[in-house]
Design goal:
4-stranded parallel β-sheet; alpha+beta; 9-stranded antiparallel β-sheet; binds adenosine monophosphate; about 30% helix
Amino acid sequence: MIGIIGGGQLGRMLAMAGHRLGERFRFMDETPDAVAGHVGELVVDSFAQPAKLDAFLSGIDVVSYEFENVPVQLAETVASRAKLLPGVMALRTSQDRLSEKSMFAELGIGTPAFAKVDSLSELHAAVGAIGLPAVLKTRRLGYDGKGQAVLRVASDVDPAWHALQGTSQGLERGEGEEKTSGLTVPLILEKFVEFQAEVSILAARGMNGEIAFYPLTENVHEHGILRISRCPASKRVDGVRFQDRAEQIAEAVLKRLDYVGLLAIELFVVGEELLANEMAPRVHNSGHWTMDGSRTSQFEQHLRAIMGWPLGAPQTVGVCGMVNLIGNCPALSEFARIPGARVHWYGKEPRPGRKVGHLNFVEQTQSDLDAVMAAALHVLR
Ligand code: AMP
């Protein structure tokens, strides 16, 4: 029996991969309609003040999590009573963009220039040091482009400070609620990077230290939300050229965090360099293509790692693509018409900006993949 903190679509897909291996799942989530509850037991409890940990942990062999904003205190309590993988260190580091980027820098991994910002005067100093354009981000709880503002000209600086101070408390739930406490929201300023492409490296580390790397995935975001992934990356990026460097980056992070499970690192391709943007200590949207396009899906790989099994083969079985379905989408039957489209639907209530499903494609050539991806995007327009 595997316990998962968080009951969203990632938890649901972990369980669907695990069912084939004979595993059973119990989820902990704050909302009774969490979609992983369709495919496993669901314990509805507060993450900040859990009252049902006995019920959640009873009979559980290993606990993992499917989102990185699990309160560290909850993770520590769980880790003191059960095996928690990946461990608390990975969670703590990835929850704060400053500690994440500082770790990358310590490991010799390039990042966009960054500076800690705790006051408006620190922001002005950081803008002076880093220059414009730049991106101002909340250190904690941002996701899908929420909790960040691009500063292009000097007159953007003060309004961005006030905007991020005003709305960050709501980020945890994605609602953008007004902030009520008087505390300053810690921020980070990053240089705006003119990247050629965004890529991610997915890698898993087993309990015995074995590591498996997936080929680099190329990602395209729209309004800060992932829209498309391709693996292998298109010729434009030449992912093969960057594969070794991406593997070195992932290996350094996996070892530093004594990591067990699947890890994703998002990278910018800038000239001949890879710059690390952020990491996710969990299965990741840019690895959804592996469900149909790899010899071992990221979900099975994560489970193999945390169960102490040998890792699976990460190779692709074709030229793979993924298109996210976001918000209100046309009827699924419209996508089912596209030859070879594999529809994955999460059973969530559609809301603007919410990921409700994805399409996977596995083709023999890049041009075949281009054609079916274009057809999918056409249905979405
Ligand atoms: P993040 O939440 O940090 O993953 O940011 C969401 C998206 O915003 C990224 O996938 C990029 O497309 C863009 N972005 C984030 N940081 C930067 C940066 N320093 N320079 C340019 N674009 C960025």
